[in-house]
Amino acid sequence: KSRRPLVNESWVESVLKDKGFCVMYFEDIPFADQLTAIRSADIIVSPHGAALSNMIVAKEGTKIVELMTHGWANSCYGRLASSLGLNYRCIDADAETFKDMLSEIS
């Protein structure tokens, strides 16, 4: 559903679900419900995209994990997270070590 979809999106979703994450597509959810989900989350994992700007309502200390496609680099959400007191990490979702990197965070 993203304009910059992860090549292995279904596999990434499967890994996240196995680790107890709830997979949500914000484009299918009313805005108020999006904000409620962000406020209540301890860890937010999302591909790079506009939905990450909702982190402005996250509680301080929330872990933000931005999934990037190999070769794509943009630090805008890392800077936003830092200014909000959030713990930010960018992960290459295409990497074979994705599961290991995610385990370090959760």
Q: Sheet with the most strands?
A: 3 strands, parallel
Q: pLDDT under 50 segments (min length 5)?
A: none
Task: Give the averaged pLDDT, no decimals.
Answer: 86
Number of E-type strands: 3
Query: How large a portion of the residues is in β-strands, by DSSP E?
Result: 15-25%
Which percent range fits the helix content? 25-40%
Strand order of the largest sheet: 1-2-3
Structural category: alpha/beta
The helix-strand sequence is: HHEEHEH
In angstroms, what separates the terminal alpha carbons? 25 Å
Radius of gyration (Å) = 13 Å
Shape: globular
Number of H/I helices: 4
Report what the structure shows:
- The chain is 34% helix and 16% strand.
- Helix 3 links the parallel strand 2 (63-68) and strand 3 (87-92).
- The two termini are 25 Å apart.
- It is globular.
- Strands 1-2-3 form a three-stranded parallel β-sheet, sandwiched between helices.
- The mean pLDDT is 86.
- The protein is α/β, with parallel strands linked by helices.
- The protein has helices at residues 9-18, 31-40, 76-83, 98-105, and strands spanning 43-47, 63-68, 87-92.
- The protein has four helices and three strands.
Write the layout of secondary structure elements.
Layout: H1 9-18, H2 31-40, E1 43-47, E2 63-68, H3 76-83, E3 87-92, H4 98-105
Parallel strand pairs: 1-2, 2-3
What can be said about this structure in brief?
This protein has 106 residues and is an alpha/beta fold. It has helices spanning 9-18, 31-40, 76-83, 98-105; strands spanning 43-47, 63-68, 87-92. The chain has a 3-stranded parallel beta sheet with strand order 1-2-3, with helices on both faces.
